[in-house]
Design goal:
656 residues; alpha+beta; 5-stranded mixed beta sheet; 14 helices
Length: 656
């Protein structure tokens, strides 16, 4: 700060000779006014271990033009006109018997021009102490303006302070002994170091969280913490050590930081409590963000109290919104509510000390620091609680998804099985329809041919023709009967009742033995069942009848037929064995005998090829199995295993 700026801004345009003349006149005015200014009681520096503040109780406003003093209108020094210098005066007295030094310290660290004049009437000397906004020019590398003064034993001095600043504010000064200064500001810098170290740890912790989860709410919280750190660095002046070349712009940096603090706090709160139920509140938040952003842009150099009002409003809004969300539908956000509430309470104390009490006291200042530190702890816990809740929700959702996936896979597997079954059924149906139409059309065509032959050939043997027609009609009836059996087995629900094998055997024997040269003695039937057997009567009859009929149909005509039918008792099942001494089945065709419309040899050319297919289908329907062994020329054995069914599980079996 150049010498020409000591008195007023008008000195900028005054030549050096004029400046020296005015300065000499000013010094004379100071000297002449010293005796009138001494009328106010001096501040006696007796309390070595306390900080002595310079306020309206010991200081007065001073007019350099007239040399008159006036009582202060406020407790501390103020300036209302940016282009004007303000003068204040006070007296300090050394009550000790030796010379002593004290430091006059300003609590404001960004004052454009500040000069301290001391006047000693005893030797008529005027000394000028000057401080600049540049930290490197101070005799102690300290963030605040500091003046070293010396008082001789029992000496009282008059001091004058000239202030000129681009911003309107109030200014506090205090007197320290060198020892008190060192201890007080050492503790202050130590507290600042702990605070910023803790905030840096919280920032790094949440940046790490963000790198893992990539959530907007964490990003906005990290930016909120970073803006808080920058804001507090330039609020307390510590940031001047980091950017000494930007000291003149510290107010702009501070205003930008405090604006971003409000914006990122609103964005963080918005995304933390984001819900579709609060559209009106979210609209208000967006409006506040836009207004705060506009204020920060257009009022970069603002030093009025309006910014304090805006900050307090933002905090109160976020606190009210968090409490509202907590009570309504977010009971697990208690840490967030506590964190914002602590920050708001600490800021209210700071706000009252600055706005209402017009004081830059350490109490309000450090309460704000403690509030920010506690807020950081609880807001970090709030994020952790939120992540815990989200994780539990994700685990629950994942579990539900897995269960749904398993159900879908199971259903898909069932659908695939049913589709395959449908494909098989479709193929069987196509084959069934094709073969059925062919087998039905065959006898009909034969009958039609025989009829045509009888009409055209009058010499034909009519009796023989009718016998042939009768035979084909019998084949046609057999085909229709078998097709009907297949349809019933596929579509008819099982009807369970007690099976009387003796009665069933008698009915089937009487039906088939009457038209064959086979006696009852050739059919040997043995029933070893001791307990009633319950099953589907239609399926049992179909099985019994088809195998019985095949034994008669494919007997060896060179020897007498022997058919043994044995029914045996087991714990949970019965076994029915059919053993004959007929033609037997070649080994090559054994695997095919249960296929639909399969005819294995010449003797079965007039058959439908459905008999054993129907047997297998009926056995499967009632939960049984069938096994066949045969030796060509010796005979065939069918072993059928059928489960016992109680009355309690008939429904489950019938659904097969």
């Amino acid at each position: 700060m150049k010498l020409r700026r000591v008195i007023t801004v008008s000195f900028k345009h005054i030549r050096s000779t004029q400046y020296l003349f005015i300065l000499f006149s000013l010094l004379l005015s100071l000297y002449s006014a010293a005796f009138t200014a001494y009328s106010r009681e001096p501040l006696v520096l007796t309390r070595n271990h306390e900080i002595v503040k310079i306020d309206s109780s010991v200081a007065e406003s001073w007019d350099p033009a007239t040399g008159k003093t006036y009582p202060l209108k406020t407790k501390y020094f103020t300036n209302t006109d940016h282009n004007k210098s303000y003068w204040y005066t006070f007296k300090l007295s050394n009550p000790y018997n030796k010379n002593k030094n004290w430091y006059v310290v300003s609590y404001n660290f960004t004052i454009n021009e500040i000069d301290l004049f001391e006047n000693n009437p005893e030797d008529s000397m005027v000394t000028i102490h000057r401080d600049t906004i540049n930290l490197s020019n101070r005799f102690i590398n300290h963030k605040q303006p500091i003046f070293n003064i010396e008082l001789k034993a029992h000496q009282t001095k008059q001091f004058y302070i000239r202030l000129k600043n681009e911003s309107s504010f109030y200014y506090e000064f205090a007197v320290y002994t060198p020892e008190n200064f060192a201890s007080s500001f050492f503790n202050e810098y130590l507290s600042f170091g702990l605070f910023y170290g803790f905030m840096a740890f919280v920032l790094i912790y949440n940046i790490f969280y963000y790198s893992i989860l990539k959530e907007k709410v964490i990003l906005f919280y990290c930016l909120f913490i970073l803006a808080q750190i920058i804001h507090m660095l330039y609020r307390d002046g510590t940031g001047l050590f980091l950017t000494p070349s930007l000291t003149a712009h510290s107010e702009i940096i501070k205003n930008i930081a405090r604006g971003t603090v409000s914006i990122f706090m609103l964005l963080y709160t918005y995304h933390y409590f984001k819900s579709s139920n609060n559209r009106f509140i979210y609209t208000c938040i967006k409006i506040i963000i836009v207004l705060r952003l506009c204020y920060a842009v257009f009022m970069l150099e603002d030093t009025t109290l309006n910014t304090f009002h805006f900050e307090l409003f933002t905090l109160l809004f976020c606190t009210g919104f968090s409490i509202y969300s907590y009570k309504k539908d977010n009971p697990d956000t208690i840490y967030m509510v506590i964190g914002i509430s602590l920050l708001t309470c600490s800021y209210i104390i700071y706000y009252l000390s600055v706005v209402s009490l017009s004081s830059l006291s350490g109490f309000g200042f450090f309460v704000l620091y403690y509030g920010i530190a506690l807020e950081s702890i609880f807001m970090t816990l709030a994020l952790a609680e939120r992540f815990k809740r989200i994780k539990l929700e994700n685990i629950s959702t994942l579990q539900m998804n897995n269960e749904l996936e398993q159900i879908i896979q199971k259903r898909t597997s069932q659908i695939e099985e049913k589709n395959k079954l449908l494909e098989i059924k479709s193929e069987e149906l196509n084959l069934f329809l094709y073969s059925a139409s062919h087998d039905l059309k065959g006898p009909l065509k034969t009958i039609e041919g025989l009829c045509n032959l009888g009409i055209k050939d009058e010499q034909a043997d009519q009796k023989k023709l009718f016998e042939l027609i009768k035979k084909k009609l019998h084949n046609l009836e057999s085909n229709i009967s078998d097709l009907n059996s297949v349809t019933k087995l596929q579509n008819q629900q099982s009807r369970f009742s007690e099976i009387h094998f003796e009665t069933l055997h008698k009915q089937i024997s009487e039906r088939f033995l009457g038209n064959n040269s086979i006696t009852k003695n050739q059919i040997r039937f043995k029933n070893h069942l001791e307990k009633p057997f319950i099953s589907d009567a239609f399926s049992i009859k179909t099985i019994y009848q088809n195998i019985f009929e095949n034994a008669l149909k494919y007997r060896d005509t060179t020897r007498d037929l022997i058919l043994d039918i044995v029914i045996e008792e087991y714990a949970d099942e019965i076994k029915i064995t059919f053993t004959d001494n007929g033609l037997g089945i070649p080994e090559a065709i054994l695997p095919k005998i249960f296929n639909m419309f399969y005819r294995g040899n010449y003797e079965s050319k007039d058959d439908t090829g459905l008999g054993l297919y129907i047997v297998k289908k009926a056995i499967i329907k009632i939960g049984g199995t069938i096994d066949v062994s045969s030796t060509e020329g010796l005979g065939t054995t069918f072993e059928i295993i059928l489960p016992r069914i109680s009355l309690l599980n008939q429904g489950s079996t019938s659904s097969r």
